[in-house]
Amino acid sequence: MKKFIWLILIFVGTIANLQAQPLRIKNTVINPGEKITYDLYYTLSFIWIPAGTATMNFSLKETLKSKTPVYHASLAGSTVKSFDNFYRVRDTFEVYMDTIAMLPFYYKEVNHEDDYHMKKEYVIKSSGDDRVDFYGTYTKKDRTWKDTVSVKNVTVDLVSVLYRLRNVDLSNIQVNDTLNFTLFTGDQSYDLYLTYKGTEVVKLRNGDRYRCKKFCPLTLDTPLFVKGNDAMSIWVSDDENNLIVAAMAKLKVGSAKVMMKDAAYTRYPITSLIDKKKK
Description:
The chain is mainly beta.
């Protein structure tokens, strides 16, 4: 299940670096109260196997001491009951960001994956014009330890990058533009290469059709993913919301797919929706 969530995270991290991303980003896209749900599938030939669900929430809260307004964003993913017998997952990721520049200052990740249980917490502070420090506390079973990682100042956690992406202006991207960068996750880094493929209509599993911008990262050869220019794809809604509508990755056997099920309380009308299947 976590691999399915990583499809979203890796894809979004890729697009977030399409251009020199400014350190400070003003939120003009995401509406506090927005909720997006996804269905996750494993496919083999024409067989679709429901594997899990994921939910993204975005809200406005206050700090306990100063009552300063802050953004709270979360991503929760779990396997469906039929998949639990194979591999049971209950993962949550959350972050707090300031409302001025969408800069994260606290991040937490809790993983429950079969017999693997891990909690990671980071207090994030700037250490200068070009660096930011992640002060991490890790808990695994009965053991707790701490570590500090210093990275480039444009590096953010895996959840806030999802929302910072949607405020990046993609209007000047050209077909076949390719960029390379490194995505840092706290545990390791990934060298990724991305090509913009243009716009196309995407039909989801539920029958809804969206007009989307398509991106294809060049993946590394791993035991899970297939290497190649078209091994991964992500489709972003071609409207003001920049919603992640769908994602797909070819695996060594079959493929993994992420498809948006519902988007509620978006700031702008979802004008990229062409057809919505009647219930």
